[in-house]
Amino acid sequence: MSKPFIEVLRRGGVIAHATETCYGFACDAFNKDALKRLYELKQMDSDKPVSILVDSLKTAKEYGIFNKKAIKLAQKYWPGPLTIVVKRKRALPAFLNPGIKTIGIRVPGHKLSLQIAKLFKQPITTTSANISGLPSPYSVSAIKKQFKNQKLKPDFIIDSGSLRKNPPSTIIYCSSGKIKVLRQGSIFVI
C-alpha cells in the first residue's frame, strides 16, 4: 500500500517533510503544474533554481553529468547534506530551471527524505519549507505559522517533530575541472 504523501506527490501536490537540515518542500520535478505550485507557494522568483533529491549516485547519474571530482565527492559525502551542481542531462524536463544548464543534486542523509526519494522513484524538488525571505522552519508549527494567512498552503505535512537547527546543505559547483563552494553548510569540502 502506498504512503499518502507519495499519492499527494503523484497528484501534483507539494509536501513538507523533515530533512537533515530543516523542513523542506518537495514536489514532482517532472510535473510542470507541481513546480508552478511550489514557486507560488514559496512566493519565489521563477528564475531561482531548485535542486533535486534522488535515492542514489546511480540515479543521480541519470540526470547529471558527473566528472571524476563530482563522483569522489558523492561517494565521500552521500547520503548527506551536500548538494552537487553538475551539468544537467536531457532526461530532466526543460521546464525545470529553464535556461540553466546545470542542476543541483543531493542524496539525502535523512531517513525520511531518502525513503520519499526511493518510494517516489523519480526526482523530487528540494527547497526549504518557507516563504521566500522568511526563516527556514524547524517544526511543523513554524510552517503553519508562516502559511496561516496565505491563500496557498502545503498539500501535506509530515510531522517529524522539532528538528535541531542545523546549517543548510553545502552546495558545490562541480561541472568544470574545478570545484567551487556556492554555499557553505555543515560539510567542509577541501
Overview of this protein structure:
The chain is 28% helix and 21% strand. It is an alpha/beta fold and 190 residues long. Strands 1, 2, 3, 4, 5, 6, 7, 8, 9 and 10 form a ten-stranded mixed sheet that branches. A hairpin with a 6-residue loop joins β9 (170-173) and β10. The radius of gyration is 15 Å and the shape is globular. It starts with a helix and ends in a 7-residue tail after the last strand. The model has no long low-confidence stretch (mean pLDDT 94).
Spans where pLDDT lies below 50 across 5 or more residues? none
Calculate the mean pLDDT score and round it.
94
Report the order of strands and helices: HEEHEHEHEEHEHEEE
How many whole angstroms does the radius of gyration measure?
15 Å
Q: What structural class do the secondary elements suggest?
A: alpha/beta
The shape, in one word, is globular
Percent in strands:
15-25%
User: Into which percent range does the helicity of residues fall?
Assistant: 25-40%
* Number of E strands: 10
Alpha-carbon distance between the two ends: 44 Å
Number of helices: 6
* Largest sheet properties: 10 strands, mixed
Give the arrangement of secondary structure elements.
Blueprint: H1 4-10, E1 15-18, E2 23-26, H2 32-42, E3 51-53, H3 57-63, E4 64-65, H4 68-77, E5 82-88, E6 102-106, H5 111-120, E7 124-128, H6 140-147, E8 156-157, E9 170-173, E10 180-183
